[in-house]
């Protein structure tokens, strides 16, 4: 089975116990095999500090760091730039996607930018 890489939107959905939380939790059940982009750490930290507090953000980042944390190297950065141009996705999303692809992982997301892309399991956002 391919490893999972969860987009920031998936982690935020889990922390808010949103409608797609259970689906994303299944993908993250074996946290030691989950691919985590450092861009995801950035986005999750910023969102959680803004909407909750640093203590909660630190707990979440501690959890994510139990996964396989991958910073963007040269190959990921160039792949991300090409993905961004090809699919018209933002820098952060393209770096997370490139990290998943480089790790031969399936990206789990609910961010519309990933809808229809290869190697992505997309779950549309629903109202809470």
Written description of the protein model:
- With 128 residues, the chain is of the alpha/beta class.
- Helix content is 52%, strand content 12%.
- The protein contains 6 helices and 5 strands; from the N terminus they run βααβααβααββ.
- The chain has helices at 8-15, 21-27, 38-51, 54-64, 74-87, 91-102, and strands at 4-6, 35-37, 68-70, 106-109, 120-122.
- A 3-stranded parallel beta sheet has the order 1-4-5.
Beta-strand content bin: 5-15%
Unreliable stretches covering 5 or more consecutive residues: none
Terminal Cα separation, in Å? 31 Å
* Rg of Cα set: 14 Å
Shape: globular
Q: Helix/strand/pairing class, anyone?
A: alpha/beta
Instruction: Please summarize the sheet with the most strands.
Output: 3 strands, parallel
Helix share bin: 40-55%
Number of strands: 5
What is the number of helices?
A: 6
| Strand arrangement in the largest pleated sheet | 1-4-5
Mean pLDDT comes to: 97
The sequence of SSEs as H and E is EHHEHHEHHEE
């Amino acid at each position: 089975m391919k490893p999972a890489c969860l987009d920031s939107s998936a982690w935020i959905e889990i922390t808010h116990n949103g409608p797609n939380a259970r689906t994303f939790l299944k993908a993250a059940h074996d946290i030691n095999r989950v691919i985590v982009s450092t861009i995801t750490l950035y986005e999750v930290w910023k969102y959680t500090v803004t909407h909750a507090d640093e203590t909660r953000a630190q707990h979440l980042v501690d959890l994510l760091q139990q996964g396989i944390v991958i910073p963007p190297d040269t190959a990921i950065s160039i792949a991300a730039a090409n993905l961004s141009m090809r699919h018209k996705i933002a820098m952060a999303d393209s770096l997370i996607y490139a990290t998943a692809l480089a790790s031969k992982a399936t990206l789990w997301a609910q961010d519309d930018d990933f809808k229809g892309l290869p190697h992505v399991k997309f779950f549309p956002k629903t109202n809470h």
